[in-house]
Amino acid sequence: MIDGIKIYRGTNQIGGIVTEIRKDDHRILIDFGANLPGSKADAIADDEVVRQVFGRDTDSVKTDAVLFTHYHGDHVGLKRYIPDDIPMYIGRTAKEILKVIAASVDFVKQKTGQSDEIELPIINKMEPYWKLGKSRSFSGINVTPLVCDHSALDAYMFLIELNKKRILYTGDFRDHGIPGEATFEKMISEKVGKVDILITEGTMVSRFDEEKNNSVRTEEELGKRAGEIFSEHHENVVLVSSTNLDSIMEFYHAVPEDKVFLCDPYQARVMKIAIEARYKYFKKYRFKKQIYVLCPGEYDGYMKDLLVYRVPGTDRCPFSMARPHIYSEKGFVMLARPNRNPNFETGRFEERMLDMKDPFITYSMWQGYLKGGKAEDSAIVQFMDGRMDKEHMEQLHTSGHAYVETLKKLMDMTDPEVIIPMHTEDARAFKKVPLFKEYVNRIHLMDGTNSTREKD
């Protein structure tokens, strides 16, 4: 038994994360995520997790707060089921990005009649984390939020002090993004140090073969290769998650001087938020060249808020309406999104591609979403249809998660007595990784269905 730690879901799957940290009759929750599409058949259903966490059996326990590590749906997707009287916390920049996401989703839902449930009021209730590096007590559960590198901007680890134990809860993290390895090591050495218990994600432990076959490992390497691709092709289309900001900023900075950078209003707003939050700290989070915005029907009403924005310290607006004669002649790099609107047979980006002569796609998402993949995504499959050959596409993607070498580095730097794997499809594989050999007797495989009982 590991006193005070209960993992409802996430010990044998990627996503759907819900963790409880408890002291006496008080607790905090870390993340309240929805199952990812394509989750394993034996995964606990979302409605069952909600019942377990907030059902009658928990009436005697007071939930002091829900802390979100970041804005991905497998960590925040069940937020609407959290009772109104429970405070919710998330990073300040992450909240702003969530608001952009919610505004877009709510608009589509209402316009298409899919649902009358809107997300924005829920996000508006979230509170940003207190001063970073400082602890706050929730009925004796002391929590220090620590910003970390992940494919979602403004993601957090938590250093938790409970029952005279120091616990590091990593959430999703890595050390090969724009902040880099040095930033990660400095944070762990200066803000964390030795811990008693390490609860760590292990996504890449169950994706080891994919990692070995990947052509790039860091965001910097991604940016260098992207620059080569963009120089070789006149019409470049990049399929990338609109909230994977490190990759987007690498692509943006890799656009040749003589080509145009294109995105839609939604992507432009997310980029603006990211740049405002990080331009002081990282060169890749600064405006490099004009961002041309693709608006439906070339109606500039979609970007009124963008047109009044000015680059800090200047009178320059970095956003302009995209006109076909400008980008078709000069050549371009266009961020794209697959069609997820059930009322449209073909998405707006796919329609634009029909007017192109010979578009080259840089696919920068997990390969598991492609046809025949572990979590085949029908929208992505449709987008990529007929374009999977080397003449028309290259896969260029870095993981949003820690490589095995990074997990080993974290273990070395924190020297935990207990290591609990989660956010992995194969927690047992932790005991078989050669790099983890010296820690094998410290690895505890938790059973997400019944509190803190260890698996045999």
Summary tags:
7-stranded parallel beta sheet; 2 domains; 29% helix; 19 strands; 6-stranded mixed beta sheet; Metallo-beta-lactamase, Chain A; 456 residues
Commentary on this structure:
The protein is of the alpha/beta class. The chain folds into 2 domains: 5-208 and 400-442, 4-Layer Sandwich (Metallo-beta-lactamase, Chain A); 215-395, Rossmann fold. Helices cover 29% and strands 20% of the residues. The protein has helices spanning 46-54, 73-76, 92-112, 120-124, 180-192, 208-212, 219-232, 245-254, 265-278, 304-307, 324-330, 348-354, 378-384, 404-414; strands spanning 5-9, 18-23, 26-32, 62-67, 88-90, 127-128, 136-138, 141-148, 155-162, 165-169, 197-201, 235-240, 260-263, 291-293, 319-321, 332-336, 360-364, 393-395, 418-422. The strands form 3 sheets. Strands 15-14-13-16-12-17-18 form a 7-stranded parallel β-sheet. The longest helix has 21 residues, at 92-112. It is globular. Residues 449-456 have low confidence and may be disordered.
Task: Please describe the topology of this protein.
Layout: E1 5-9, E2 18-23, E3 26-32, H1 46-54, E4 62-67, H2 73-76, E5 88-90, H3 92-112, H4 120-124, E6 127-128, E7 136-138, E8 141-148, E9 155-162, E10 165-169, H5 180-192, E11 197-201, H6 208-212, H7 219-232, E12 235-240, H8 245-254, E13 260-263, H9 265-278, E14 291-293, H10 304-307, E15 319-321, H11 324-330, E16 332-336, H12 348-354, E17 360-364, H13 378-384, E18 393-395, H14 404-414, E19 418-422
Helix pairs in contact: 3-9, 7-8
